[in-house]
Amino acid sequence: MLTVHHLGRSQSERIVWLCEELGLDYQLKRYERDPVTRLAPPEYKALHPIGTAPVITDGDAVIGESGAIIEYILGKYGKGRLARHPGHAEHVSYLYWFHYANGSFQPLLHRTLVARRLEPTPDHRVLKDLQGRLERTLEFLDQRLGEAQYLAGNELTAADIMIVFSFTTMRSFTPYDLKPYPNILAYLRRIAAREGYQRAMRKGDPGMVLLLD
Question: Residue 47: CB partners within 8 Å, gap ≥ 6?
Answer without folding.
Answer: 5, 55, 57, 62
